[in-house]
Amino acid sequence: VLVRGFDIVLMIGFAVVVTLIREPMVLGFYLVAAPLSLAMIGFFRNRLSERNQRFRQEVEDMSSSVSEMIDMIPVTKAHGLEQQEISRVEKNLQQIHRKGHRLDRLNAVFESSTWVTLQITQVICLVFTSILATRGVITVAEVVLYQFLFGLIVTSITDILLMVPYVSKGLASLNGLSVILSEEDLESRAEKTRLETVEGHVEFDQVSYSYSYGEDWAVRNLSFVAEPGDCIAFVGESGSGKSTIMNMVTGFFHAQQGRVLLDGVDQRELDLQAWRQHLAVVTQSVLLFSGSLRDNICYGITDPNEQRLLDVVRASRLEEVVTDLPQGLDTPIGENGVRLSGGQRQRIAIARALMRDPKIIILDEATSSLDMITEKKVQEAIDSLVKGRTTFIVAHRLSTIRNADRIIVMKAGEAVERGSLQSLVDADGEFAALNALQ
Question: Cβ(124)–Cβ(37) under 8 Å?
Answer without folding.
Answer: no
